[in-house]
Amino acid sequence: MKLQSAGNVLQVNVTKLRLLGRSYSNVHVTCPRFDWQGNRLTCKKGQLRTSSFAAGIDFEYLIAQQELHLALAPGGAENWRAMAAFNGESWQANLGASAASLAQLASFLPKDAPVPSRGTLSGTLNLEGKGAELRRVDANLAVDDLNFADPSGLHAGEKIAASLKLVGTRAGGGLNWNSDIVWNKGEVFWSPLYIPSGGHRLRANGAFVEERLHVTEGSLQVAQLGAVQFSGDWSTKGGLEQGRAAATQLDAKTLYTLLLKPFLDKTALDALDASGGITFELRYADAELQQLDLQLLDVSIEDQRKRFAIQHLNGSLPWNRRGTGEATLEFAAASVSGIPIGKLQTRVKSEGFDFAIDELELPILDGKLAMNAVRVWREDSNWRWKFRGVLLPISMEALTKALGGPVMRGVLAATIPEVTYADGRVDVVGAVAIRVFDGDVVIDNVSLADFLGPAPRLNADVQMRNLDLGLLTSTFKFGSIDGRIDADLKALELSNWKPVKFDAKVQSSAGNYRKKISQQAVQNISSLGGAGAAAAIQRSFLGFFKEFGYDQIGLSCRLRNNVCEMAGVASTPQGYLIVKGGGIPAITVLGYNRSVGWNELIERLSRVIQSNAQPIIR
After folding, report:
1. What is the Cα–Cα distance from 524 to 507, expressed in whole angstroms?
2. How many domains does the chain contain in total?
3. d(CA 296, CA 30)
4. Is residue 403 part of a domain?
5. Which residue(s) pair with 273 in the sheet?
6. Does residue 68 contact residue 85 with C-beta atoms inside 8 Å?
């Protein structure tokens, strides 16, 4: 340090200065009106310069009283005021700022903290203490037009206006405090949360004792959401030790959009519309949630992709980690994949993270799904569930209309063995038996992964026996076929509900029954054979009869790599038999294309159903 004085001019040059943990080089102070009279040192109209900062400076130091008054004017409306006084071991310090640049404070922040790029600070900070002990703090600060960001891009804010009021007073071995923080406007991204606007307020009081922050009473008011009351203890070393929180009638839409959705990205719950209210009270201790009492008040949830919905959900759900409880749940209506579900009322028993429902009935269209032994539990930090059930007869006409597909006749009923869920996968332990089209369907080896996700994956084996062809063909406007068929669909693999692999075979059922096929069905079956398909009769002869006899119908497809390897009842030199004639008049239909692209086959079937395309007859 170099000190020079000539007349009333004082110059101080410091090569290196360390202050508040920061280092400054080439610090120059010039006082053109410096005065030292007895106990008082004063500097008027001075200048302070460092390698990165310049400001006008005035100061006064009272030697006997050990009292310093300092004013800095960096320029414009910005100014800083400071006072420090010592009286033996007791001391006090006051700091005031007006329109102070927050960007200038960036060097005082921790290395990894978000850095302010603009904005101003105004207000006062008053401190009192004795030795190394802080006895009182009184802060009244406000920031305006604050922008900040960190290098990672995970934390940023723009145009923020906020204020802080904090009062702390030493009491015994701790510091009692009271705070009030108001966030008036501006937007913040604090990954993964995005808060688009202000209007929030946090008020709390408590004590800071031996590296522990105790909140006696706190209230967080979030715009359009509601208020949460809380209390608890935080350790500066170990985090939250214990706490309580409660809220009444939180807005479900804001709760989902603002706080829940960011944590549900790329899950089945990442695109919902919600409404209604939520009330809760919880207790946290020993690093775990201990108790939760949740009230659902007329909550409605609808998936934006139209996969599921719940309307007017109400419930009371008391839960205790180490105790038992019984919850009540009810909703007015729901839907899954467009299938409507009627009103539900049920009770859920709980013991820790184990939840059970003895019996549950879900009205589905004109039937119902009756489930029993429903259980949901947590094991090794993962959720699992299982149930058994029976699907009581549902009108196929109503079901297919709800699904938006071709209208089918008859009823659907099923016996459902144990269904389990674990590690994101649904498995059916045993075979699902279904009664449809007056025949029997058995679905076995069923597994479903990511069932509510963006790309569900299904594996199964399907066996169909003695299905009524009349009911089946009339559903798809295929033309009428009287008879019965068996079908096997082995090693079925669906991805996002689209086939990627299977071995399929359809053939006439054994037994004696009427076997007739209409002219329209002959034409459509021939069309499925491709451009080379042909009926083994003359076009003129085909026109004489409305229906024909047959002995067997058969068609198979082995799907691999989006190509279907096709076969029929039997092979011929030209191709394969799809319909083997029998009776009078009889008709035989041949297929010539053994390898057909899956998409092309689907297009042919679509044309058949929609326009009844004409075959090539030779």
Report:
1. 17
2. 1
3. 69
4. no
5. 302
6. yes
The domain in which residue 551 lies consists of: 437-611
Ranking 8-17, 198-207, 538-547, 560-569 by mean pLDDT, the lowest is 538-547
8 A C-beta contact, residue 171 and residue 152: no
Rounded-to-integer distance, Cα 243 and Cα 326, Å: 24
The string of DSSP letters for 30-58 reads: EETEEEEETTEEEEEEEEEE-SS-EEEEE
Is residue 593 in a domain? yes
Q: Which residues pair with 182 in a beta bridge?
A: 163, 201
CA dist 292 and 100 (Å) reads: 46
Place of tokens 């600070």: 121
Instruction: In whole angstroms, give the CA distance from residue 323 to residue 548.
Output: 72
Helix, strand and coil content of the chain, in percent to the nearest 5, comes to 10, 65, 25
> How far apart are alpha carbons 517 and 485 in whole angstroms?
13
The enclosing H or E element of 236 equals: none
413-424 confidence digits (pLDDT tens): 888 889 999 888
For helices 519-528 and 598-611, what crossing angle results, to 10°? Answer: 160
C-alpha–C-alpha distance, residues 113 and 267, integer Å = 31
Provide the phi-psi class of 119: left if phi over 0, else alpha when psi is between -120 and 50, else beta.
left
How confident is the prediction for the chain on average, in pLDDT?
A: 86
Q: What length does the chain have?
A: 618
In a domain, 334, yes or no: no
Question: Is there a domain that residue 74 lies in?
Answer: no
Q: Name the token pair of 585.
A: 């008049």
pLDDT for 287? 87
Q: Which two tokens stand for residue 231?
A: 């209390």
